[in-house]
Amino acid sequence: MAEHYKPVKYLPWEMSLEERFQEYYPAYSEREAVLEANRCLYCHDAPCMVACPTTIDIPTFIRKISTGNVKGSARTILESNLLGASCSRVCPVEVLCEGACVLQHDHKPITIGRLQRYAMDYAQEKNIEFFQKGEPNGFKVVVVGSGPAGLSCAGELAKRGFDVTVLEKREWGGGLDTYGIVVFREPVEVSLGEVKMMEKLGVKFKFNTEVGKDVSFEDLVKEYDAVFVSVGLGAVPEMEIPGEKMEGVHDGLEFIEETKVKPLKDIKFGNRVCVIGAGNTAIDCATIARRLGSERVSIVYRRSEAEMPAYHFEYQFAMKEGVSFMFLTQPVEVIGENGKIKALKCKRMDLGQPDASGRRSPVEVPDSEFEIPCDMLITAIGQKKLTYITDKLVNEFGVKLIKGYISVDEKTNRTAHPKIFAGGDCIRSHGEASTVMAVEDGKIAANGIHVTLCGEGAHREPALASKK
Ligand SMILES: Cc1cc2nc3c(=O)[nH]c(=O)nc-3n(C[C@H](O)[C@H](O)[C@H](O)COP(=O)(O)OP(=O)(O)OC[C@H]3O[C@@H](n4cnc5c(N)ncnc54)[C@H](O)[C@@H]3O)c2cc1C
Ligand code: SF4
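YS: structure for the whole thing
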């Protein structure tokens, strides 16, 4: 089978397991941050700021770093994005702010993400509270799900005096930032710190509380003045091929979650690993497997390099980590021995006409079956939509869907029901889903709820604890 693999590069194995899962980019020292901030041209029309979905005033926060006002820099960031700490680590800056930086072409773009992290770490270390709960306005809002969309909406509403309760089915808050984003990009403490920030703003959290099981959606609509639905998406769907329930076949999201909640030494991994899918989740699973110690990790994808959904910089990162790619390869069966996975049977594919997604569709090459030996298979082929909430919304509250995602008015994120708003991955029917877009959805919904309940002229400025 050797001809199916590209050469594997090796990671620096002299690093300990813990070191391999440290944050990938080290934090800037004060000197490094100031030097980098001084490179910024403070552009008048700042394309970096236009490219940021939450419109952070990037030139201003960078200038404040260069003049030693790091506290003021952090405030500038948080005024536009309460999840500035998470976003500084997980944002695909290469295609957003840094990709738009005017220094992109002739020089190196400003490392906006790392500067943002510098300011956010400073605020976190010094335990600075920038905002306070607004004067109570008498309205009660419930937020279903505590991912970035839910946290952002809850925090913005609390600043304006709403009484906000967040219901979360998991033990911890933060959604995928806590459980799904690979630990060497975002440690769990960062997103849990953001949950704490919302608690300090007066947001009430009820963890281990699943809407649909522990409390009914109908009761929420009756009891609260507005409901914000930010439930994200569900588990990885089945591949629907024989053998997929076999020992050694893992759900990609559960695999990533283990690295966030378990001691690294307790995580089981294979020696020869196949990852199915070619999105960012697949890349994360593959790089985690390599860093745990898997010798051979192959990403198996039925289309070609040109159609793969992962960002190009993620693809390059995975290759540097020694992950190999098998394009135009369709898995058809998991082959086992004594109940354990032994190989993945695949077929070769070719590219045909574009399908509904606009990408050229894979077409089977006749008589092209072959096997890839492996002792672990990780599936990373997207996420299921959560049907309990969407079924309820459609059947009982007249809410519309687009391709199975909740349909909202773009200006307010309100659904067809006047009391129900939604945001985050559960509304993202097209384009890339990301933390920063979920944060912006939460902000839009908070404004929408504010204006709906308090009227068009509603006072929108959040209460600030400090103006410096
Ligand atoms: C593996 C992976 C890696 C990613 N990496 C990146 C990255 O590097 N950068 C980036 O910008 N984006 C990344 N993303 C995308 C990003 O994480 C999501 O777009 C973002 O988290 C969406 O936020 P959300 O609030 O809509 O949903 P989620 O973060 O999914 O949060 C939804 C919350 O709702 C809760 N919930 C669900 N149903 C119920 C219920 N019935 N009752 C109560 N609570 C409920 C869930 O437990 C969860 O906490 C990644 C996604 C995945 C899957
Ligand atoms: S585009 Fe680049 S140089 Fe201009 S303000 Fe933004 S970060 Fe600074």
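YS: worth flagging: The two ends are 63 Å apart (CA to CA).
IM: good catch. Also Residues 40-43, 46-48, 58-59, 101-103, 110, 112 surround iron/sulfur cluster (ligand 2) (CB under 6 Å).
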